[in-house]
Amino acid sequence: MDHNLGTLTPCVVALIAHDDLRAVLLSNPGLAGTLWRDSLIDAAHYRERITSLGRRQALGRVAHLFCELYLRQKAVGLARGLSCPLVPKQSELADALGLTSVHLNRVLRTLRGRGLVTLSGGLLTIEDWDALAEVAEFDQTFLHLANNSIPAREAAEAV
Predict the structure, then answer these.
(1) Three-state DSSP state, 124
(2) Cα separation of 157 and 114, whole Å?
(3) CA distance readout (Å), 119 to 17, 42, 86, 105, 154
């Protein structure tokens, strides 16, 4: 492989030999199609990350990542209202966003100061989805999630 994988939380990882995977895919065209679709979605995520790192200023990068993290966690039932766990440490977020920890800290202060997010005890709360999404230039279609409802409406209905 030309890269490494790491996890931020405990995970179970299984290795499947290429020959075994090929045999399963040849006998299950539906599974092959699903893996192909998953590869296309991964490519969309990579394109979005490259765009974010290459074109967005730090504030937009962080806002974009927060919107994405929230929607991904919402899709698997980990978000409540407009809050979700924020597992990565500040240094890990900075690395993922191509920022120094000091610069990330300033950006987080700005997001808090504008009333867009609250960070407390490993929990991210989006205080103003529309404003955060605007700062992020966020378009959630690249995530290919089945549930495309607007989070701000859901939060208002939950109150």
Answers:
(1) strand
(2) 24
(3) 42, 28, 8, 12, 20
Report how far residue 84's alpha carbon sits from residue 82's, in angstroms, rounded to the nearest whole number: 7
The segment with the largest mean pLDDT, out of 30-34, 48-52, 98-102, is: 98-102
**Segment 112-132, tens digit of pLDDT:** 999 999 999 999 999 999 999
d(CA 137, CA 119): 21
Which two structure tokens, joined as six digits, stand for 63? 């806002």
First to last CA, the chain: 48
Structural contact between residues 58 and 107, judged by C-beta atoms closer than 8 angstroms: yes
Residue pair 129/151 in contact (Cβ under 8 Å)? The answer is: yes
User: What is the CA 54 to chain-centroid distance, rounded?
Assistant: 17
